[in-house]
TrEMBL record:
This is Nucleoside 2-deoxyribosyltransferase. Gene3D superfamilies: 3.40.50.450. Transmembrane segments: none annotated. The lineage of its organism: Bacteria, Pseudomonadati, Bacteroidota, Cytophagia, Cytophagales. GO terms for biological process: deoxyribonucleoside monophosphate catabolic process. InterPro entries: 2'-dNMP_N-hydrolase, Nucleoside_deoxyribTrfase. GO terms for molecular function: 5-hydroxymethyl-dUMP N-hydrolase activity. It comes from the Bacteria.
């Protein structure tokens, strides 16, 4: 039985982000024998597309509110099921959804690797790479924040033994 890695990431919001995630990050993890739990694919497109296609207005807002509960529950269940999390920390600040997933995984005592390939400063002070609480929860169970994708491959086996 392969270990399952949940990939927490805001990269699914953009075409460029998806290209990097599905062309670089996910293949690197899969090459090491891990099964991917991808929150961008946990909720079926058949459920989401009709809501996305609705005209702007109160009905669409209500449908999104209902669907958001399904999406959140699917993601929470996948984090409970995973062996660990790889979290993408790029952006001016760590994405709030990714930060929430990191906190939830840390509370469940899941190991976490944080990847920040973004060279912009994003820390509270010189002692951290990203928000100090995010970094604390990543390192809480022996995880690490890395800044080069090349470091992910060797770290996977070390952190997710």
């Amino acid at each position: 039985m392969s270990k399952k890695i949940y990939v927490a990431s805001p990269l699914g919001f953009s075409e460029a982000g998806r290209a990097f995630m599905y062309g670089n990050i996910i293949p690197t993890i899969e090459e090491q024998g891990y099964e991917i739990l991808d929150p961008w694919k946990l909720t079926s497109r058949e459920l989401m597309q009709p809501v996305m296609d609705m005209p702007y207005g109160p009905e669409k807002k209500q449908k999104w509110a209902e669907l958001n509960k399904v999406i959140g529950a699917n993601n929470a269940e996948a984090i409970r099921e995973c062996s660990g999390v790889v979290a993408i920390l790029d952006g001016v600040d760590v994405d709030s959804g990714t930060a929430a997933e990191i906190g939830f995984a840390a509370a469940l005592e899941k190991p976490i690797i944080g990847y920040r390939g973004d060279f912009r400063l994003s820390a509270d002070n010189e002692g951290s790479t990203v928000n100090l609480q995010v970094q604390y929860f990543i390192e809480f169970r022996g995880g690490k924040v890395i800044t080069q994708l090349a470091d992910l491959k060797p770290l996977l086996k070390e952190i997710f033994m």
